[in-house]
Amino acid sequence: MEWGHVVMIIVGLVFITLAIVKDYEPLLLVPIGFGILMGNIPFVENIGLQLGIYESGSVLNYLYMGVTKGIYPPLIFLGIGAMTDFSALLSNPKLMLLGAAAQVGIFLTFMAALALGFSVDEAAAIGIIGGADGPTAIFISSKLAPHLIGSIAIAAYSYMALVPVIQPPIIKLLCSKKERLIKMKPPRAVSKVEKIVFPIFGMVLTTFISPGALPLLGMLFFGNLLKESGVTKRLADTASKQMIDSVTILLGVTVGASTQATTFLTPDSIMIFVLGAVSFMIATAGGLLFAKFMNLFLKDGNKLNPMIGAAGVSAVPDSARVVHSLGQEYDSSNYLLMHAMAPNVAGVIGSAVAAGILLSFLLGA
Amino acid sequence: MEWGHVVMIIVGLVFITLAIVKDYEPLLLVPIGFGILMGNIPFVENIGLQLGIYESGSVLNYLYMGVTKGIYPPLIFLGIGAMTDFSALLSNPKLMLLGAAAQVGIFLTFMAALALGFSVDEAAAIGIIGGADGPTAIFISSKLAPHLIGSIAIAAYSYMALVPVIQPPIIKLLCSKKERLIKMKPPRAVSKVEKIVFPIFGMVLTTFISPGALPLLGMLFFGNLLKESGVTKRLADTASKQMIDSVTILLGVTVGASTQATTFLTPDSIMIFVLGAVSFMIATAGGLLFAKFMNLFLKDGNKLNPMIGAAGVSAVPDSARVVHSLGQEYDSSNYLLMHAMAPNVAGVIGSAVAAGILLSFLLGA
Amino acid sequence: MEWGHVVMIIVGLVFITLAIVKDYEPLLLVPIGFGILMGNIPFVENIGLQLGIYESGSVLNYLYMGVTKGIYPPLIFLGIGAMTDFSALLSNPKLMLLGAAAQVGIFLTFMAALALGFSVDEAAAIGIIGGADGPTAIFISSKLAPHLIGSIAIAAYSYMALVPVIQPPIIKLLCSKKERLIKMKPPRAVSKVEKIVFPIFGMVLTTFISPGALPLLGMLFFGNLLKESGVTKRLADTASKQMIDSVTILLGVTVGASTQATTFLTPDSIMIFVLGAVSFMIATAGGLLFAKFMNLFLKDGNKLNPMIGAAGVSAVPDSARVVHSLGQEYDSSNYLLMHAMAPNVAGVIGSAVAAGILLSFLLGA
Amino acid sequence: MFESLVQNSIVKFLIAGTSQASERSGIDFNLSAAFTEQSISITIVGYFVVFVALLILFGSIAAFTTIMINKQKKNMDASGKQKGSAKREDIEMTGDVNAAIALALHMHFDEAHDFESTVLTIEKVQRRYSPWSSKIYSMRRFPRQY
Amino acid sequence: MFESLVQNSIVKFLIAGTSQASERSGIDFNLSAAFTEQSISITIVGYFVVFVALLILFGSIAAFTTIMINKQKKNMDASGKQKGSAKREDIEMTGDVNAAIALALHMHFDEAHDFESTVLTIEKVQRRYSPWSSKIYSMRRFPRQY
Amino acid sequence: MFESLVQNSIVKFLIAGTSQASERSGIDFNLSAAFTEQSISITIVGYFVVFVALLILFGSIAAFTTIMINKQKKNMDASGKQKGSAKREDIEMTGDVNAAIALALHMHFDEAHDFESTVLTIEKVQRRYSPWSSKIYSMRRFPRQY
Lengths: 365, 365, 365, 146, 146, 146
Ligand code: NA
Ligand code: NA
Ligand code: NA
What we know:
Chain A has helices at 2-22, 26-39, 59-68, 72-83, 87-91, 96-101, 104-115, 120-127, 134-144, 149-161, 163-174, 177-180, 192-209, 214-228, 233-257, 261-264, 267-295, 318-330, 337-363. By secondary structure, chain A is mostly helical. Chain D is mainly alpha-helical. Chain D has 6 helices and no strands. Chain D has helices at residues 2-25, 31-34, 37-78, 80-116, 122-128, 135-140. The model of chain D is unreliable at 1-25 and 81-146 (pLDDT under 50). Chains in contact: A-B, A-C, A-D, B-C, B-D, B-E, B-F, C-E, C-F, D-F, E-F. Chain B binds chain F through residues 25-28, 79-80, 83-88, 240-241, 316-317, 337-338, 341, 344-345, and chain F through 126, 130-137, 140. One sodium ion binds next to helix 19 of chain C.
C-alpha cells in the first residue's frame, strides 16, 4: 500500500526533525523515527526475503524479541535507576503523593478505551500511556496487547516528547497567578544512609503491594542501589551508560520499525493517539489538582506550588523542566526544578505500581 | 584428523603474528586467529562434551548463532556508521562512482565461482569476498551458503588484512607515473545539514532500490545519523565503541572457531581462497580503471588521481591508507588520504547494495 | 511459605550489608544480595503472572538462561583475562604448583559430598566450590547439577567474600612464626614477548590436557591476549569493563533471584554450605602445606614464604591481599602481595583445569 | 472519598474530550461498556492501591528520616567534633543546592554549547545528558564551576 | 555500454587468473557453467543497479549541495554579518583539512607510539577497580606517584 | 607419591571436619559411598592431571624464559647500547616494584578517593583509536595539536 508507507515515512521524518530541531527527547525520537523509515521502505514485504520486522528469521525480528518478550523495558529501568537521584523525593517525601495522584490518567483512560470498544486487556495497555513512561507502556502492552505495542509505544513517546507543548496550557488553566508564584523551601540535605536504604526498602514494599511491578521496580531500585551503594560504581556506570544506551538503540529502532504501514495504519491506532493525548491531560490535571488539595492542609510557608503536581506524570525530567521554566516565567527568582523532580520520579514509581496492579487483575489467577 | 588441526593451529598463529608484528587489521585478526586455535584443539570433538562450535548446547555454539542468524553484521554496520565521516564523499560526490565500479570484482568472481562448479547461491556468497567487507560477506553467506561462512569470512578478512600487500603492485601496474603524481583540490567544507540529510536520504534511496540491503544499510545509515544528528551523542558513542567492540570480539572468535579442521580443510576452501584473491585484484583494477575513464571527461585541474579508484574496494580505511602512502612515495607533498576516503566509504555502500541485489535475485520470490 | 521468604530476605540484606559496610566483594554481593530480595518477594509465585525466575516467559527467566546455558561464566572469564596480569607468575613460574596443590580442596570435597549422599554429578559440582571461583562453579553446576546452581553459587561467592575471615586462622595455625617472616626476592622483569606468548601457549596446552576447560580457559587466555597483544586495546577495554560489568550485573541478580525460598531452603543447601566451608579450608591448607613441602627442596634465600601458598585457592585478588596484610602484621617491611598474586592466578587456571577433568569424566563418552 | 470525587469530576471532562475525539474518528462512544463491574473495581481499587503504596512509602521514609535526624542531633550534642563535621555537611549540601539551581538556569540556556565545549570531560557531560536522570545528580558534580 | 566493455576485457583477465588457480588446485574450469542466462542477467543487471543506485545518490547529493550553496551565497550577500560568519567557517574548515593532513602523516608514522604514550592515563582508573584483576598490574602504573 | 600422601593425611582432617558438620545437620556420613572405585580414580587421576598440566606449563615457561634471557644476554654482550637499555629496564622494573608496594598500601586505604580523581582522563584516549572510522573524524578532534 504505497500511500501508507509514504505517510509513515513522513511521520518518521517529523519525529527526527522534532528531535534535532526542537530537541524533544532526541535519544528516543531519533531511533524511533529512523526505525519508522526502516519499517516502511516500500515493497520490502513483497520481496519474500527475510527483511520485515514481522518475518521470523529477519534481523529486525530477532532484535524485536527484546520488545515482544518484555526484556528491554526492565533493562532500561535498571539504567534509569542507576541514573536517578531520589534525594529530592527523600528530602520531602510527601510529594510522593503527587506521583500517585497523576496516575488517575491511567485509570480514566482505561475506562474511556473500554467505552470506545477496546477489550479490557487492550484498554489497560492503552491506559498506561497516561503513565507517561515509555518502558512501562511497552512492557504492559507486550503482556496484555502485543498487537498494539507499536501504536502504544509511539503514542507514549510522542506525548512524552510533546510535554513542553501539552502541559503548559493545562497548568495555566488550573493555577491562579497567586499559586504560580508560591516559593518552596530549599530541600534539606539527605544522608548517604537514607539514599542506600530507600531502594532496598522501596523495592520490597512496592513489589510486596504490587508484585506485577517486580520486573520494572525491581530493576529500577536495583540500579539505584548500584548507584548509591558507593561500592559498585563501575556497575552503576555500565548500567547507566552502555547498557541503557544499547537497549535504547535497539528498542527505539525496532519499535519504530514495528509501525509498518500495513499493520499500523488502522482506526485503532488513531483512537489510541486520541486517548493518549487525553490521558496525558488528565494525568497533568490530576497531579496539579491534588497539589492544590494538599495545600488545604498545609500551613503557610509549607504550601506547595501546585504547578509541581503536573510533574507527577513522570516523563522525567522534561515535565519537571517545563514546570521549572513556567515558574521562571512568573518569577525569575523561583527555582522549582528540584521540587518538581520529586513528584517526577515518584510518578515513575506510581505508574509502575499501577501497571503491576493492572497485570495482577488481568493476568493473575 | 591430527594433521588438519595442526595445520589450522599454524594458520591461527600466523594470523595472530601478522596482527601483532605487521599490525594488519589487528582488531579482526587477533580474535579470528585465537578463535582458530580454540576451534582446533585436538580431540575436542571426540570427547562427547558440549564443547565444539558445531555441538548444540555449547557456549561457542550459542555465541556462533549471532553469525549464523546474521545478527552480528548489522550491529557492526551500526557501529561503523556511527564512526564513519562521510564528509569526504559529500564534498566530492562523483567519487561515489568509484565505489560502484570496484564492485565488478563481486560479479566476475560470481561467474568464476560458477565456472569452478559452485552452486549459484554459493557462487554469489563467494563473489561478495570481492566487496572487501567482512560483515557483508558473513551476512550473505549466512543467508545463501551457511556451510561456507567460515571459509568466506576467513578469506575476506585475510585479504582485507593483506590489502597493503595485494593492492600496490596492481596500482603500480595500471597507473602511469604521470597519473600517480596528480594532485587534487582540497575537499570543500561540508555543512552540518548535508551531513544530517545524507544518512536519511541515503538509506531511503539505496534500500528502495535494493531492499535486500536493508539490514546492513539501514543500520549503517542509522549509526551515521546517531553520529551526525548532534543530539544523540551518547548513543553514537556506545554504538561505535562498546557495542561494536563486543560484537567484534564474539564474531571474530566464533568465526575463527568455525574453522574446525574437520569441516574446514576441503578443496572448496582452497578454491574460495583463490577466488577471493582474484576478486580482490579485479575490484582494485575495476575502481582504478574507472577513475582513468572518468578522467577522460574531466578538465585539467579537476582530474582524479586514479590511484584513489583502488580505494573503492572499501576495506576501510586500509586501502585509503595504502593509496595515501603510495601517493607520498612519489610526491611527499601529495596528501591523498581524504580523497581516497570518499571511494573507500562509497565502496561499503556499493558492496552492500550489490549484496542486496544478489539476495533479491536468489532468495526473492 | 512466609518464614522461608523472610529468612531469605534477611540473607539478602546481610549480603548487601557485608558488601557495603565490610567492602567484601561488593561487585558480587550487592547484585546477588538484591537478587535474593527480588527472588523472595512473598506471594509472587502464587499470583500466576510471569514473574518468578522459574516461570518460563518471565524476564528473570530469560536473563537466567545466561546462567543455565553456561554462557555468562565464559564471558566473565574473558573479562578476567583482559584484566589479569600474569607477570608475577611468569617471573617465578614454579609458584604455579601452589595453584595446583590448592585444588585438593575440590577433590576431597567431592568425596565428602559423596559420603553425605550426593550423586556423583552433584558431588563434583559441589567440590568445585573449593576452587574459590564463582564463574567456574556456576559453569560446572549448569552442566552437572542445574538444580543446585543457586546453592553452589551462593556458597562459592559467600566464602570468596569471607576469605579475610576464613583464611587467617588456618594460615596462623599451619605456619611457624619463623616461616611467616620469610622474605622473598622481588620478581624479575617480564618481557612483552613472554606476556604475549603465554596466553597462546597456555591455552593450547591446558585445553589440550583438559578439553573440558576450553570454554573457560579459552576465553580467559583470549582476554589476556587481547590485553597483552598491544594492538587490540579497545577490545580488551570493552571486555574488561562494559562486557564483564553487564554480565556481572545479570549473573549476580539472577543467581540471587534463583534462591527462591520455595526451592532453596532445603537440607541439601545447608550441607552444601558446610561442605563449601570445609573445602575452602582444605584448599587453603593444601596450598600452604605444599609451599612448606617445596621449601624442603629450595636452598636458603630462595625459600618461599609458605603463607603465599594459601593464595593458591584463587579468589583473586582477595586471598593474595589477605596474605599480604598478614605478612605486614609480622614485619611491616615484608611485601608479599606480588608474590601471592602468582599462586593466586595459577589457582584460577588450576580450578578450571580440574573442572574440565570432572566434566570429561562425568559427561565424556 | 477524595479520589472518587476527582474521578467523577474528571470523568465528565474525559467523556467530553473523548466524545469529541470519537466524532473526529467517527466512532460512537458507549459509556455502558466503560462502567462494567470489573472496570469500575479495577479503577477504584487500582487507583486506591497506588495511593496506599506511595502513602506507606512516604510514611516509612518520613519515620526513618526523623529517626535519623534525632540520632544525628544526639551525636551532635554528644561530641562537638562530630557536630562540627555534621554542620560542615549541611552547609556543603545547601551550598550544592544553590550551585545546582545556578547550574539549572545555566544549563537551561546553553546546554548544547557547554556540551560541545567539554568533549574531553565526557564523564561530566554524560551524567547530565540523559532524558531520565535527575538533574540534581549531575549538578552535584560541579559546585566549583559557579 | 561501458560496464559490459570493462566486464569483457576483465573476464579474460579473470579466466586467465582462475584457470591458473584451477591448475594449481587441479580442478577444471568450465565456462559454460559460468555463462548461463541467469548468471549473465544477475551479473549485468546487478552491476548495473549498483551503478544506478550510486549514480542517483551522487546526483541528488550534488543537486542538494548546489541548492545549499546558492542559499548560503544569498544569505551572505544579504547580510555582511552572516557572510563573515560563513567565511569564518570555511576558513576554519580548510584549516581543519590542513591540520587533518598534518595529523594523517603524523599518525601514519607513529600512531603506535602516540597511542602507547596515552595508555598509562587510562589504565589508572579501570585496572584498579576490579575484584579479580591482579593489583600488581595497576601498581606498575604509577612509579611517579611516589 | 606426594599427592596421595597429602590426600590421606587430609582425608582424615576432612572426615573429622565433615562428620562434625553432619552431626550439626543431623545427617549420617557414610564413607563407603565416598570410596567407590570411580570416585577414587576421579580424585587421584583428576588431582594428578591438574598437577601435570601446571607442571608442564611451569616447565615450558621456565624453558622459554631462560632462552629469552640468554638471547638478551647475547645481545647485551654484543652491543653496549642495548646492554644499557636493558639495564635501565631492570632498574625501572624494580623501581616499579617498590612503587607498587607503596601504592598497594596507599590503595588499601583510599581506593575510592583516588579512583574518583582520575575519572576525567579516560575518554580522551578512546576517541582516537578505531580501525574503521574515517581518520578525518578523529583528525577533526585535534586541530590544535599541530
Ligand atoms: Na508516571
Ligand atoms: Na566494497
Ligand atoms: Na582456584
